[in-house]
Amino acid sequence: MNGVHDMGGMDGFGKVEIEPNEPVFHAQWEARTMALVRAMGAAGAFNIDTSRFFREALPPHVYLSSSYYKKWLLGLTANLIAKGFISRGEVETGHASEPAKPLRRGRLTPDQVSRVMTRGTFTREAQAPAKFKIGDRVRCRNINPVTHTRLPRYVRGHTAIVERNHGPQVFPDSAATGAGENPQWLYTVVFDARELWGADADPTVKISIDAFEPYLEAA
Amino acid sequence: MAHDHDDHDHDHEHGSELSEMQIRVRALESVLTEKGYVEPAALDAIIEAYETKIGPHNGARVVAKAWTDPAFKQALLDDATKAVNTLGHVSRTGDHLVAVENTPQRHNMVVCTLCSCYPWEMLGLPPVWYKAAPTRSRAVKGPRGVLADLGLTLPADTEIRVWDSTAETRFLVLPMRPKGTEGWSEEQLADLVTRDSMIGTGFPKMPGAPS
Questions:
Q1: Which residue of A has its CA nearest to B168?
Q2: Kind and range of the H or E element at B143?
Q3: B19 has catalytic annotation
Q4: I need a surface site. Which of A73, A118, A145, B17 has the fewest CB within 10 A?
Q5: Contact present, A77 and A46 (Cβ < 8 Å)
Q6: Which residues in chain B (1-60) have CB-CB distances under 8 A to chain A?
Q7: Which chain B residue lies closest to A110 (C-alpha atoms)?
Q8: B55-199: which CATH topology?
Q9: B206 in contact with A at a CB cutoff of 8 Å?
Q10: Which CATH number is associated with domain A137-218?
Q11: pTM metric for this prediction
């Protein structure tokens, strides 16, 4: 979706400012929110792409004015309500009042935590041979789905060179909508800054994205 | 991270007023616990892991090893996940880790314009500035400006390569080894490796600099 989360190339957000001695969490609720998201994801309530989509789908003014973990809390709540795990009424009262729904992998137990701290693999069996090889010139398609995609707006329609092939992986655009993993070849493709930002751009800068094959066409 | 699971009234330990966010998160956790979806002790264990075990010290050990062991460095650049998992003393890392090497000709910098993707297993949870709009909006259009905000200046002819983490690949920058560290041990070198130097938004500490 063409949301405000897709920030690459926007102006006006100001200076990058580092907080000295930043703590891992600024408040207990941030830590609990992060852990709730991890635990519900590990239990199979949703995949990472769906989780991202529910944050992106927050109203733009909410997205832009909420702290990072507030976005996580709002996204998690909306996601769990949409999937029928909880109801709005339960969120408001803070108590369960409706039957629970089975979790695909079951509740995360403390003894499983160290295992889920290591990310799982997104590599899958190829559905077809790779269309592109390293060194190929490609163009990012001009697609504008209203659902989740990992093709940022700033590269659409622009040409790049294929630099790496990461193999077939879960396709977020499909996984986020519950349409299955639909594995697609994943490539690192590299753009010259002038291709993306015009003739005045810094000629020493190159930018890459990781692009799934359906995002690309031969150029 | 103290958290009293039996405290259903959620009285704050210091008796001060709970913030709105704290109340909302506690309400959600209560619902999820009552419904049998989460176990508070598992949440505690997740939080403890990020507060104590998973942090930039993991990445620093990898970088220091690469600085002292050319075969390991090559293995890291060839397949970072595999190379990191040969190191017994570093926490395991998942698939899709890619190490990119800084050289005098080329400086690498990592961003996630769409959200906050970051090599958690190597660097811990990302800092607020990495996840915030100024970095995400500007890194791909004007990386030298972002670096200037962070106090870094690179030679005008150094190539800057920005890696936008749009899929599940996680990028770890291998910074250049500081001069004046000949003969240093891996442990000594690891102390010079900062989190930001592994994002490409900082340099390693110089030998003798205050830590």
A1: A122
A2: helix B143-149
A3: no
A4: B17
A5: no
A6: 1, 3, 19, 21-22, 24-32, 34-39, 41-47, 49-51, 53-55
A7: B42
A8: Nitrile Hydratase; Chain A (3.90.330)
A9: no
A10: 2.30.30.50
A11: 0.94
